[in-house]
Amino acid sequence: MTDFMEISPGRHHGKRLYLACMLWFFGRAVQAAARVDDGVKSEFAAMPDNFTFCLGAFPSGPYMVVGKDAHGRVRHLGSSLADRTIHLHLMFKHPALLFRVFAFQENTPVANARNRLYVLGDVPQACAVVRIIDMVQVFLLPRFLAKRAVKRYPAWPLKRRTLIRAQVYARAFAGL
Amino acid sequence: MVIPDYYEFSSRALIMAGHDALEQIPGLLLSMDAQKPMVITDQGVRRAGLVDILLQALDSRITVKTIQDDVPADSDLKTVHTLAGEYKKYGCNAIIALGGGSVMDTAKGVNILVSASSDNLLAFSGANALTHTLNPLVAVPTTAGTGSEVTRVAVISDTDNLRKLLFTSDFLIPDAAILDPRMTLTLPAPVTAATAMDALSHAVEACLCLGRNPLSTAHAHEAIALISHNLLPVIRQPDHKPGRLALATGAALAGMAFSNSMVGMVHTLGHAAGSVCHAAHGACMAVLLPYGMVYNLHKTQPLLADLLLPMAGADVYARTQPADRAQKAIDWVDRMNQRLHQATAGAHAVCLREIKSQDGKSRVTGHLLPKIAHTALGDGSIFYNPEDLDYDDCLMVLEAAFDGAPLDPSRVKKG
Ligand SMILES: [Fe+2]
Questions:
Q1: pLDDT value at position A6?
Q2: In this complex, do A106 and B8 lie within 8 Å of one another by their Cβ atoms?
Q3: Is B215 near chain A, with CB under 8 Å?
Q4: Highest averaged pLDDT of the listed ranges A18-22, B74-78, B137-141
């Protein structure tokens, strides 16, 4: 059995790089929002300390890992699943399916309803993480894109739309 | 119908439906080489004489090894583990689940353990954790509601940790669902009403929610027609066998629909009310269904309009202006609840505060509504709802449903 076809993982380099960059920046923005936004803060507050979740694509990434440390501080933990206990996985079944979401072709609830991802872990915590992802998307994206990414574009007060959003952006770039 | 870019549908249960369907069980078990079944049921079913009817339908080729009738109203982890022990003790090789949703889900849990020779059900919780076919399981529903006899879902309470464990897998779909009207003939009117409204809510949510697809919608529309045309006649004449069979068929069809497309906020809020106040699931569904339809109206208008045809029939559908059909479908569900309320001498609840326990006490009290709203935010079905819901939205709907007040569509945030 030697003449099987070798499947090369070399295609779609561009999409993979795009996804890796998006997830990297998104992870930093989650960390930033957890510091400055009350809505994101309170979702994290309900989670236990030392809780780690990842968002990514099966079978080999890319991934975004975010966690709460022993002191309750929320941190972006990079893109590797190695040597970590992950308590909650939100895993798309193929990188192309994750790409559809990050290219705004399909939003997360629709992808979920179409069975495009699997969720391993506690369901209430998964609900909270999805709400966090929604809020961070609204912070990061211009309105016309965010409207495609979330079910309902929220009516946030002016301060949250301007000042807090600017802080999320600044901290995400600076990695604070 | 807009075809989604992608969808999945599976429905592999053999349906054996008819006025002598029970008599098909021996041949069925033999064909699966499963002559030594365990019967799982509850005491209410046993008192109603349904176990005797089942045993009479089995013949000498089948040896029922044991009959376990201790399943509580809410399927729980301890019962599942105990029953799995009994299954092994008596050397059974199949399960006949005779009962409502709790019995079915318990039987599914037992079947996971005995098929995998495991003593830890937690290891199999969540989505698609099962990787092998299970032992033969024959489901004989004694209510026409949950649809669990055909679904890929089981919900089992972990009472020690105050949570409900969800199991989903195609392997959980029973090998056969036996729909025999003799099993529902003696069901009291309020239970018939509430369970049928549960089935109706499965069908309606299957049509409206984000996982909808042409196959689930086809099943759901037929389910709505069967339930709509047969529920009141059966309430008025409980021993109406064709009507009973139609309701059982409707519930199974609705089960196939929602097992694939999932359900939304009606179940989100209903599950939460169930776990916070132990309010009966069917009763919650009946009350909350019209609220879920109003809440999602702006996102699902054409889908809702289509429901008027199976609900009210061709005459009413044709007489109603297209623009009015969605609202008319909502009104039709409201009116169905009112009629059921009258036909059951007030036992069928039309608002949350009317949902009573068996000793007549109110299950849902006003001060628990915030807790229900909070719990709802952690229910997975919330994702499948067409419109988003935050805590304030959940509370707004619950407060209206508590008193039976209409939900003002202008108060629904539309983004
Ligand atoms: Fe239900």
A1: 57
A2: no
A3: no
A4: B137-141
A173 CB near a chain B CB, below 8 Å?
A: no
Cβ atoms of residues B81 and B121 within 8 Å: yes
What is the pTM for the complete model shown?
A: 0.94
> Which pLDDT tens digit goes with each residue over B268-299?
999 999 989 989 999 999 999 999 999 999 99
Q: Could you read off the pLDDT of B227-270 as tens digits, one per residue?
A: 999 999 999 999 999 999 999 999 999 999 999 999 999 999 99
Distance separating alpha carbons of residues A104 and B151, to the nearest angstrom: 32
In this predicted structure, what is the pLDDT of residue B141? 97
Q: Which domain holds residue A140?
A: 14-171
Residue A68: inside a domain: yes
Partner residue facing A123 (CB), from B5, B378, B386: B378
In a domain, A86, yes or no: yes
Identify whether A1 is part of a domain. Answer: no
User: What's the CATH number for B14-183?
Assistant: 3.40.50.1970
| Superfamily grouping for domain B189-411 | Dehydroquinate synthase-like - alpha domain (1.20.1090.10)
A113: which chain B residues are within 8 Å (Cβ-Cβ)? 209-211, 261-262, 383-384
If we measure between CA atoms, which residue out of B193, B397, B232 comes closest to residue B311? B232
- The pairs formed by B229-234 with CB atoms below 8 angstroms and a separation of 24 or more are B229/B313, B231/B192, B231/B193, B231/B196, B231/B336, B231/B340, B232/B336, B232/B339, B232/B340, B232/B343, B234/B192
- CA–CA min distance B213, chain A (Å): 9
Is A9 within the bounds of a domain?
Answer: no
| Interchain pair B387, A150: CB under 8 A | no
Collapsing DSSP to helix, strand or coil, B390 comes out as coil
- Nearest residue on chain A to B126, alpha-carbon basis: A120
- Residues on chain A touching B211 (C-beta within 8 angstroms): 113-115
List of chain B residues whose C-beta atoms are within 8 Å of the C-beta of residue A109: 210, 383-384
A73 touches chain B (CB under 8 A): no
Q: For position A44, which CATH number holds?
A: 3.30.1050
pLDDT at position B338, please? 98
Give the total number of structural domains in chain A.
Answer: 1
pLDDT at position A1 is 45
Partner B contacted by A48 (CB < 8 A): no
Each residue of A68-94: pLDDT tens digit? 999 999 999 999 888 889 999 999 999
The rounded distance, in Å, linking the Cα atoms of B349 and B346 is 7
Q: Two tokens at B190?
A: 């309020």
Residue B304 CA to ligand 1 center (angstroms) comes to: 19
Domain range annotation of chain B: 14-183, 189-411
DSSP state at residue A5? P
Beta strands in A32-112 (DSSP E): 52-57, 63-68, 74-76, 88-92
CA of A155 to the centre of ligand 1 (A): 32
